[in-house]
Design a protein that fits this description.
alpha+beta, two-stranded antiparallel ribbon
Length: about 55
């Protein structure tokens, strides 16, 4: 869950009006027999404004 939250926060710096997320894949790296990093592959849904700002 934390990996998804971080990914959405990072994407929202460039993409405005994110309205949904689909988690495609979770993965993790192991170091010294412990989970060290989590990764999430996502699809984001967002609103694209039209020419009139709709």
């Amino acid at each position: 869950e934390d990996a998804v939250q971080k990914a959405v926060k990072r994407a929202s710096a460039k993409i405005k009006k994110i309205v949904g997320v689909e988690v495609l894949k979770f993965s993790a790296k192991v170091r010294d027999d412990r989970l060290a990093e989590f990764h999430a592959n996502l699809k984001l849904a967002f609103v694209v404004d039209g020419p009139g700002g709709e």
